[in-house]
Amino acid sequence: MISIIIVDDVKKSRETLEKMLLNYCPDSEVLGKAGSANEAYQLICEKQPQLVLLDIEMPNGTGFDLLEMFDTINFEVIFTTAFDQYALKAIKFCALDYLLKPIDIKELIQSIHKASIRVNENSIKDSNYSHLLTNLKHKNSPKNKLALPTQEGLEFIIVNDIIRCEAEGNYTSIFFKDKNRLLTTRKIKDFEELLSEHDFFRIHRSHLVNLNCIEKYYKGDGGYVLMLDGSTIDVARRKKDDFLERLSRV
Fold this sequence. Notes:
Layout: E1 2-7, H1 11-24, E2 28-34, H2 37-47, E3 51-54, H3 63-68, E4 76-80, H4 85-93, E5 97-99, H5 105-120, H6 126-137, E6 145-149, E7 154-158, E8 162-168, E9 171-176, E10 181-184, H7 188-195, E11 200-204, E12 207-210, E13 214-218, E14 224-227, E15 232-234, H8 240-247
Parallel strand pairs: 1-2, 1-3, 3-4, 4-5
Antiparallel strand pairs: 6-7, 8-9, 8-12, 9-10, 11-12, 13-14, 14-15
Helix pairs in contact: 4-7
């Protein structure tokens, strides 16, 4: 049994979600419902739920504002929202779960099941939520800072300083303009999704490049690029047309 609190500013949405849990997630127990960040904070402190189903866009404080009220987040969170694309990418990048409205019953069941496993295994990671909030805070920063997870903790970097990303199995190496290299504990697919709006393009299964850091493109079957750091990277044949089209718009 997993204990849950539902947070949504729309009363009908709260009630609908509670009915869905009652009818389709028998191993869940709703301890209470809240319509604002402040109300939810008091309810969470009082009830100590294992899981919070959290709407993001609320008129008197967002779901992110609620999370920032806690020194340590010792409960699982599933975001229930459509919100903006950057936030969804950041949530996924941090390996956190979300459900798009209108909520699909099958997806709800799967998300509750996954949350129950994490709760039972005591694998809730407060650092993931801290990482998410940091990235969202820097979203509108002129320098576009990101907090990247490494084996030692979090590394704060400036997006425009990245030349390229290279897959290293389940890890990704980040190469910077100052010749430094950083190994992060995220797959290259995560970086592809997070950096797509910053003029990055995945030209090869193992390589994601900053289009603004390409010195020259050499023609060929797929061709290859010369990067600012002197590295040369093949362009996958199937990526060539999309790459050249995207490059022409930078």
